[in-house]
Structure to design on (291 residues):
């Protein structure tokens, strides 16, 4: 098994802070998983894609669900297919190896080249899931009892693990990871992010959109605050809709691009109404509801 260390500096379409860049490079240098936490929309999943792109590596994504078990990432023994072949097929079913299907972790271990392995939203699984992965992530191998075979990683993958903090992760698991919390971008970094995607966006429109966006995020009792991806959609809608920058903060055009919960939509409409004049708010309501 080999380990290559190439420094990650970010990519042209992913703006990375110095702290996050250092966390990535420390995790790679120490051959430890990088555990990323942060609210949805802070770019945790996109970071793994950026690392793979920057280092020229394949990205393998293991999407975790509430029913996912650690065993699923190693391998699956397809007993159903073997039973079917026993009854109806003409294969030699004594060759059990043909019914062993590698999971995402198994694919990463057997790859001829180093890969980036994203274990996405680990906190969705049950509490035993992280602990069940500890040994394999430490020693970089696992055993398949059905074939008496041990799979050893040819190249240690760069492991990125994301969590939305829906539940706490076990301390033994945390001790084996490099941890980084991705804070939601401040306005100046958000401006850089938007300009990467829309370099020709008018500065006045951008400034007013950012002012309105962070005002919305500052409001209490929102069920789902708008994220970076929703802001990118919003500024594109504002530009395509020909909205005057003077109207953005007061009227919040196309609000449904930012907010995805009925309660949040009504909350913001009510607070916009309270802060402005009646005529302006009625005009704004027509714009973002009907465009």
């Amino acid at each position: 098994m080999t380990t290559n260390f190439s420094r990650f500096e970010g990519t042209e379409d992913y703006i990375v802070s110095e702290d996050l860049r250092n966390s990535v490079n420390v995790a790679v240098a120490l051959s430890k998983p990088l555990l990323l936490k942060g609210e949805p929309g802070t770019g945790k999943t996109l970071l793994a894609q950026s690392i793979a792109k920057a280092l020229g590596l394949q990205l393998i994504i293991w999407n975790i669900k509430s029913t996912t078990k650690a065993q699923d990432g190693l391998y699956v023994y397809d007993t159903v297919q073997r039973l079917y072949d026993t009854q109806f097929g003409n294969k030699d079913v004594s060759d059990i190896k043909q019914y062993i299907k590698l999971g995402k972790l198994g694919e990463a271990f057997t790859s001829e080249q180093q890969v980036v392995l994203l274990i996405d939203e680990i906190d969705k699984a049950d509490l035993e899931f992280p602990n069940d992965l500890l040994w394999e992530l430490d020693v970089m191998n696992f055993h398949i009892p059905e074939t008496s075979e041990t799979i050893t990683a040819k190249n240690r993958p760069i492991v990125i693990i994301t969590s939305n903090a829906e539940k706490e992760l076990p301390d033994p698991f945390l001790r084996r990871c490099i941890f980084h919390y991705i804070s939601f971008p401040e306005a100046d970094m958000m401006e850089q992010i938007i300009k990467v995607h829309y370099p020709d966006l008018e500065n006045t429109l951008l400034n007013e959109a950012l002012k309105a966006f962070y005002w919305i995020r500052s409001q209490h009792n929102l069920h789902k605050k708008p994220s970076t991806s929703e802001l990118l959609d919003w500024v594109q809608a504002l530009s395509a809709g020909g909205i005057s920058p003077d109207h953005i903060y007061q009227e919040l055009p196309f609000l449904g691009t930012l907010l995805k919960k009925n309660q949040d939509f009504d909350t913001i409409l009510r607070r916009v109404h309270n802060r402005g004049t009646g005529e302006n708010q009625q005009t704004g309501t027509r714009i973002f509801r009907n465009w």
Remarks:
- The chain has a mean pLDDT of 89.
- The two ends are 57 Å apart (CA to CA).
- The first strand starts at residue 34 and ends at 37.
- Residues 18-181 form a domain with the Rossmann fold fold (CATH 3.40.50.300).
